[in-house]
Amino acid sequence: MNRSANALPRLLIALAAASACLTARAAEPDLNLLVEHDVSEVGADGVTRTMHFQERIYRRENLVWIERVLPEGAHRPEAHAGGGAEHKHLDLAAAARWITLEAGRVVRVRLVVAHDRAVVEVPAAEYGNIGFDGSWENAYHLLDPRRLQAMKPATGEAPAGARWYQATGGRQTVRVLWDERARIPRRVESSDAAGTSRARMSAREVAGPSTPPWSALGGYQQKVYSDYLD
Amino acid sequence: MRLPNPSILLRAAALAALAALLAARPAAAAGEARNVIFFLGDGMGPTTVTATRIYKYGEAGKLGMEALTRTARIRTVSHDAQTTDSAPSMAAYMTGVKMNNEVISMSSDTQAYDAAGKPYLSGADSTCPVTGNGAPVATVLELAKAAGKAVGAVTTTRITHATPAATYAHVCHRDGENDIAAQVVPGSGKFNAALGSGVDVLLGGGWKFFLPSTVTGGKRTDGQDLTAKLTGAGYTYVTTGTALKAVDTTATTKLVGLFNADHMNYELDRVAKAIDEPSLADMTEAAIKVLKHNASGYFLMVEGGRIDHALHGTNAKRALEDTVAFDEAIKRALSLVDLKDTLVVVTADHDHTMTFNGYSHRGNPILGKVTDGKATKVAGAPVLALAADGLPYTTLVFGNGGGARNSPREDLTAVDTGADAYLQNVGVVLGNPGSETHGGGDVMLLSGGAGSGGFKGTLDNAKVFGVMRSAFGF
Question: Which residues of chain B have a CB within 8 Å of the CB of A45?
Fold first, then answer.
């Protein structure tokens, strides 16, 4: 999924290695989320670089749909038609990620390109190229719940049913506001000790789509990732 | 009025081109080589070769291909583009003719796109005009076949992909892979008659273009099962590495192996996941053993095709692993042939934008971060070099590429840049996955054996064809 290495702090990745077993649980609630990412870094050159983007995430049993919130009118089919859409043209920002958990807990990842009316199967070796880390738990929960095991409960104002966790490793501190019902982080905040790097992710529930986008793909071409390579 | 059968026209044009070439051969051809093996590392530019050497053998080490000491520098510009794609570059090697990007072994005037800029394609079916859009030009593989030699093509991509296709097919747009498959299969209705009794060895991926769309995974729109036609034509057909190992090469003269519906796996994944696909070295060995039954000799093309794909993805580790596998195939071939009667050529079709940065100390991992060589010497331990933003950077980076995820540059201090899936930083962010472009710089050619004397200095890629033809004595 589209967790930038900045937005998903490196410390959390390190913490993930601390646990291994999958925990069998009852089905989690369906969710319709708007997730916002804000990243700010001050370089040694004195330039502050900021990044902000939003995603809609729809979670169902064994299914996660992630799509970037795009500017109105961007990626219209006619705009792409002039750019050689027939060949080697796969716009990652415009493509939704359709992640499903198949039989045997096998993760399947497809890109859905609306302007090209194409569903693109992505093999595991290419996950890095679409910004997916291969973890079903990270996709389904936004953050693998097992990572909380290596964090300590922390203080902070929290809504009912949620609590803060915190971990510090090296120069970086990470705080997670974990929603026990939805089993997702409502917020993830990270910062470094020097105050030069800050990342925040926040998730809130919104109204779901009238028609699930994954059920409206009739007539889409079935492609594979290699169709876009030369 | 009854329209002519396109395949008949294609066949006639190919045969005419072949006859003209044979008639025009030099009176005093060298003819030193009974066999020619042409190795093509797709996208394997000079930086990739150097990085692979360091990755596998260290700075003082030597790749197998470096045993080939007759070398040249190759210009890769295509007929219509500063930076070539694989189709016209490989086709230039195979035919001696410069052509437009996307075009497979056709004359220079052939267009891949119509006047409106739309490619001559319908899915994987070619819609190239039957007349008025160029003509086939003979390939060295076709010439070798016409001279009575055995011929083969081996690759880690789909066997219908641009590089192998340029040895045996003629089409105005490389993505017409259903047609490309039909051109190599006797009895398909579109078989390339210049291939005579057919290509003797075909090993690679891409069975989806050989099976009808009525079969799961099949893409053919004409309903044909081309694998059945191949077995009907006397080919031994295998689909796994295990099955290839079981082939009795002493008793086989026609061999087809299609080991994946699509491209074969990257070497890194093939090994790590124990996937039952053969290595490029094993395919090369099988091909040589089958082809050498022909007393007149053989022509074999071997492609390390997925080097290019990993580079497009700015995934240097997979690119280097595939280059190592390619080098192993060269070493295997050199252990099986006699250079007194065999010409071995190793080159690339084009470069990529990967470059090699910094002043790291010797011994620094090539997939690692750049070190400050002087500070490292003083400290007695690696000291990372920092960019103007105060962050470390990797030795290998790309001039452009997907790179959408790291808007402010990522702090690599605690990142394992040698991990399998690590993607190198890019300069110009193109946004699309796998979109890193080819590079337009010259590439290396290494050769050895019979008839290799012509490979020296700076050569245009189209001139390589002439040296091979001369070595064969055509």
Answer: 388-390
* Alpha carbons B115 and B362: distance in angstroms, whole number: 54
CB within 8 Å of B344: residues ≥ 6 apart: B36, B37, B39, B68, B330, B333, B334, B337, B447, B448, B449, B452
Residues of B in contact with A87 (CB under 8 A): 119, 121, 175
| B408/A51 Cβ within 8 A | yes
Give the torsion through C-alpha atoms of B394, B365, B68, B156, to 10 deg: -70
B202: buried, middle or exposed (CB in 10 Å: 19+, 13-18, 0-12)? buried
Residue-level pLDDT, tens digit, chain A, 230 residues: 333 333 344 444 434 433 333 344 556 899 999 999 999 988 778 889 898 999 999 999 999 999 999 888 777 666 655 544 444 567 777 899 999 999 999 999 999 998 889 999 999 999 988 889 999 999 999 999 999 999 999 999 999 999 999 999 888 899 999 999 999 999 999 999 988 889 999 999 999 999 999 999 999 999 999 988 87
CB contact under 8 A, A131 and B408: no
pLDDT for B411: 83
Please, are residues B187 and B231 in contact by the beta-carbon 8 Å criterion? no
Contacts of B265 in chain A (CB under 8 A): 125
Contact between B330 and B346 (Cβ < 8 Å):
yes
Q: Provide the CA A25 distance to its chain's centre, in angstroms.
A: 22
Complete DSSP assignment for B305-338: THHHHHHHTT-HHHHHHHHHHHHHHHHHHHHHS-
Report the distance separating Cα A161 and Cα A34, nearest Å: 19
In 3D space, the residue among A214, A206, A213, A57 whose CA is nearest the CA of residue A143 turns out to be: A57
Instruction: Give chain B's end-to-end CA distance (angstroms, integer).
Output: 41
Residue B360 is a catalytic residue: no
- Cα of B121 to nearest chain A Cα, Å: 9
Report yes or no: B231 and B216 within 8 Å, Cβ to Cβ: no
CA dist., res. B354 & res. B297, Å (int): 38
CA–CA separation, A36 and B12 (whole Å): 62
B432–A230 C-beta distance less than 8 A: no
Q: Which two tokens stand for residue B71?
A: 């070398």
